[in-house]
Amino acid sequence: MERVRILGAGPAGLSAAITLARAGCDVDIFEARGDVGTRFHGDLQGLENWSSETDVLEEFRGMGIGTGFEYAPYRDLSVSNGQEVLDFSCGRPAFYLVRRGSSGGSLDTALRDRALDAGAEIHFFRRRAEEEADIVATGPVRDGLVAIAKGFTFSTSMENTAVGIIDQTASRKGYAYLLAMNGRGCIATVLMDNFQDAGACLERAKALFAGMTDLDIRDPAPCGGVGSFRTATRYRDGDRLYVGEAAGLQDPMWGFGMRFAVRSGYLAAQSIIEGTDYERAASEAFGDLIRAGTVNRYLWDRYAVRNYAFLFERLKSVRDPLKHLRSFHSFNVYQRLLYPRARRYLNAEYEEKKEGPSPEL
């Protein structure tokens, strides 16, 4: 049996490990931290369900990854400009909320346990050079950090809730959100610029959510993270395969990346098992999605963030936002025409952020 070495025990690395071990390969995962999910503290995150016609949970089951983690579907969601709230109801779940972290029921621990049950070995507190790995799944690329999220998790009596705010006082070129799932909640602001304003934006977001919901916060604990994207992905370097954020796979618009991570890990593993071309498979799976996201980011930066009021008015005519979200990720004719300009703009606009120091949360 072939022995495969994987760097990183995040969703991408664990997805690859599960697939390889189930096929009879010997798998060693090297993880620098002491457990999976230690970057998170019960954070609530969304598994997006709009970039494909296939439901994301059905996709996970079809790949053999399983859905042994706690999740909740969200068909109903609200968007606010800080003064007015728009309520939407989707034809199917727009996303599934999951918990991240090292506690039972999280996405991370469920994937860890499935990998171990399949026979993979995880070596915690162990680092390896990329040159020693077959699959690199080491998370965000530090020279591509262009966004941060700052927030807190809490216990709550609130019903399952999803509310987003598009307002320049609650974020900087980004958005803020309130999520509640099964007695746990999370409030965060996502900034694409002026990272030093994260604390003020978070306080503003909290105040706005308190004004529009029956906000119940108990035992708050800080959470946060960083986001990265590249207009050019990297799937292979010699014999090494790159997956998840290490490959540059994160939606440039909204920052969703878990679905990309899990699928890329699966595709990399399948290429080793079947002797197929991972680079080609990944390009077919993610190329148009990343290019469409690049155009969406460009349009957001150039026009939407300068006119939140216009964007909010446009949302009033939308009945099912899921259809619009899917169309935004289809890399349509209009996006194809704009893509060269969008790529040049993002490369120039975010170069300073990529070269600067990493933001402190």
Which descriptors apply to this entry?
alpha/beta; D-Amino Acid Oxidase, Chain A, domain 2; 7-stranded mixed beta sheet; 35% helix; globular; FAD/NAD-bd_sf; NAD(P)/FAD-dependent oxidoreductase
Produce a short descriptive summary.
By secondary structure, this protein is an alpha/beta fold. It is built from 10 helices and 16 strands.
Main beta sheet strand tally, sense and closure: 7 strands, mixed
Low-confidence stretches: none
- Category from helices, strands and their pairing: alpha/beta
Distance between the termini: 44 Å
Work out the number of β strands.
16
Q: Helical stretch count?
A: 10
CATH homologous superfamily designation of the domain at 144-228: D-Amino Acid Oxidase, subunit A, domain 2
- The CATH architecture classification of the domain at 144-228 is 2-Layer Sandwich
The helix-strand sequence is EHEEHEEEEHEEEEEEHEEEHHHHHH
- What's the average pLDDT? 90
Spatial sequence of strands, sheet with the most strands: 6-5-11-12-13-10-14
Radius of gyration: 20 Å
Protein name: NAD(P)/FAD-dependent oxidoreductase
Pfam families: NAD_binding_8
